[in-house]
Design brief:
The chain has helices at 3-25, 50-79. It is mainly alpha-helical.
Length: 86
């Protein structure tokens, strides 16, 4: 394998784990794991806490990096077709 494919694969695995964790931390109707880390302290303005909004932004950012890794791997495997062959 080439180093861009290996590097992108490592970033993909790390972002997959982070994305799974961030989705589990989100608060649903009855609270959630985010309450364990201070997400339960909500302000009256806007209906959601600052921690929840920051978690939303972080989840979207990690999701976009995850998607970019998927598309980059697709392009890399098209550029180097012999790398994925067994």
């Amino acid at each position: 394998m080439t180093w861009p494919i290996v590097g992108t694969s490592i970033v993909l695995v790390l972002t997959s784990l982070a994305l799974s964790l961030f989705v589990l931390l989100h608060k649903n109707r009855g609270g959630g794991m985010s309450d364990l880390f201070g997400g339960g302290m909500s302000s009256t303005m806007g209906g959601s806490s600052v921690a929840e909004r920051n978690l939303d932004r972080l989840t979207i950012l990690v999701g976009l990096v995850w998607l970019a890794c998927i598309l980059l791997l697709l392009a890399l495997y098209r550029w180097f077709p012999d790398v994925g062959a067994f």
